[in-house]
Write a structure and sequence with these properties.
There is one protein chain. This protein is an alpha+beta fold. It folds into two domains: about 170 residues, Ribosomal Protein S5, domain 2 (2-Layer Sandwich); about 110 residues, GHMP kinase, C-terminal domain (Alpha-Beta Plaits). The protein is about 40% helix and about 25% strand. The chain has nine helices and eleven strands. The strands form two sheets. Strands 1, 2, 3, 4, 5, 6 and 11 form a seven-stranded mixed sheet that branches. A four-stranded antiparallel sheet has the order 8-9-7-10. The longest helix is centred in the middle third of the chain and has 20 residues.
């Protein structure tokens, strides 16, 4: 028997590293995890060259939760770029933990893990694997539930959770990767009073201004070219800014300005990915 789970990535509204509070929304780029039980050890593989350490930690945490002895085979595939600021680690953790826990609960007739147990297990695995600085509760919750979440990452508390307005999402991907755990935290914390202003905008429902302000602030702190976001805004984007700790930039666009913004982003070396908001979250498929 197998379980297959699909988990979306997410894009940043407020990066939580500087203040501990954050916000993100789901996007229609996915990590898919297929899990089956075996009589051997834990075996993790991926269609992409991804370090299997995170997947192995996810599986071990679920096995420990249920206090059982079993082998597990995990295979992941992804349309979500890694080390890009689009929550590939959170999506991977969510998909693997949900698939493994769902399969074990069914096979051994045990109580299924609830949403927050799955989410917290996935975050703990990401922390143990060293792929996140804060645990990325904002990213992980947006990936898990879909839509928009506003969070207190330090307390792992969801402050607001809503469907995100359905708009086109254009993602500019430069020809480089950026590992969150290697980012300059001290420089990001210098911006905390200004990032807090952006967070308050998000709480008030002014999501697009929050995303843009946050994205430009973190671009400055991390040495990315904020002209990318400004060019998208000049072409008509509703919002644009750096996602996570980069290197990707996200632009929220309507149908009217979609082509103009796409053209503006195409002027930079790299590629542009066109996707949309995901309001469904992590699901067994």
């Amino acid at each position: 028997m197998k379980k297959t789970v699909r988990s979306p990535g997410s894009a940043t509204i407020i990066n939580a590293i500087s203040t501990g509070s954050g916000s993100a929304f789901g996007i229609q780029l996915y990590v898919t995890a297929e899990v089956q039980l075996t009589s051997s050890e834990i075996e993790c593989t991926s269609e992409r060259r991804v370090n299997p350490k995170l997947m192995e930690i996810c599986v071990n945490k679920v096995i420990q939760h249920y206090s059982i002895d079993t082998g597990v085979k995990v295979h992941t595939d992804s349309t979500l770029p890694v080390a890009s600021g689009l929550s590939s680690s959170s999506a991977t953790s969510n998909a693997v933990v949900m698939a493994t826990s769902s399969l074990i609960a069914e096979e051994f007739d045990l109580k299924p893990m609830n949403d927050m147990e799955i989410l917290n297990t996935a975050i703990d695995a990401s922390l143990d694997a060293g792929v996140t600085i804060t645990g990325a509760f904002d990213d992980a919750s947006a990936s898990y539930f879909g839509g928009l979440t506003i969070t207190n990452n330090l307390e792992r508390e969801i402050i607001q959770r809503n469907e995100m307005e359905k708009q086109n999402i254009l993602i500019y991907m430069p020809d480089r990767k950026s590992l969150t755990a290697q980012s300059n935290v001290n420089r990001m914390k210098l911006l905390s009073p200004l990032v807090d202003m952006a967070y308050k905008k998000a709480i008030q429902g002014d999501i697009y201004k929050a995303l843009t302000l946050n994205g430009i602030l973190y671009s400055a702190a991390l040495g990315f070219d904020s002209n990318i976001a400004l060019d998208a805004l000049e072409a008509g984007a509703l919002a644009s800014g750096l996602s996570g700790t980069g290197p990707s930039f996200v632009a929220v666009v309507n149908d009217e300005c979609n082509d103009r913004v796409h053209e503006a982003l195409n002027n930079y070396p790299g590629r542009v990915i066109a996707t949309q908001v995901d309001n469904n979250g992590t699901k067994v498929i």
